[in-house]
Amino acid sequence: MRIYIATTALLLGLLGTNASASQLSPTPGQDSAETRMSEYAASRPPIGYVQFCNDNPRECRSGSPMPQRLVLTPARLKQLNEVNDLVNEAIAPITDEDLYGVAEKWTYPLDRGDCEDYVLLKRRLLAERGWPLSSLLITVVRDTKGDGHAVLTVTTSAGDLVLDNQVPEIHFWRDTPYDFLKRQSKTDPNAWVSLRYDDSQSQYSVGGTPNR
């Protein structure tokens, strides 16, 4: 498996220098634009997510009311990269329209899928490896083409990391080219929060042109 490091700071902090994970993260209880996304008002969940939960109610149960921001150890970073690589390499990108004949359908993929299908599978595999669902947040963005796109945000002590199917590397959210729109709440997977101060209640389709 390829092991990608999001930034030089992460490499120095986790793989052998005097910097600690706590030195890479802001003061506990405070969000920082440098490492953590700011959350605003409640937002509507994507319609595809609502339909997914209707079909898979056990997959959308509320988890722990206490969000967990795990310390990003080398072992956990390796695990993130392994799952990210595994799913990106196993699933071929295809739009929901081409695969199912509908504009948007969220589901676990077999060998093909749209961006949200990659996210759902990565989320499930990481949860099976012990990651709390409160740290695995489905996130809606606009990509560089202006299309709606879904990524998985993993909240850690070092900051918010983004697992994506359009690029192989894992990056801190601030190091991606995306416009972040909304994501799941850390306290309730069925509640969504806006990542934009002035755009909390907009609906977004997350299907776009498939690519890696």
Automatic annotation (TrEMBL):
Residues 1-21 form the signal peptide. It holds the Pfam family Peptidase_C93. Coiled coil: none annotated. Keywords: Signal. InterPro entries: Transglutaminase-like_Cys_pept. The keyword Signal applies. It comes from the Bacteria. PANTHER family: BLR5470 PROTEIN, PTHR39327. This is Transglutaminase-like cysteine peptidase. It comes from Microbaculum marinum. The lineage of its organism: Bacteria, Pseudomonadati, Pseudomonadota, Alphaproteobacteria, Hyphomicrobiales.
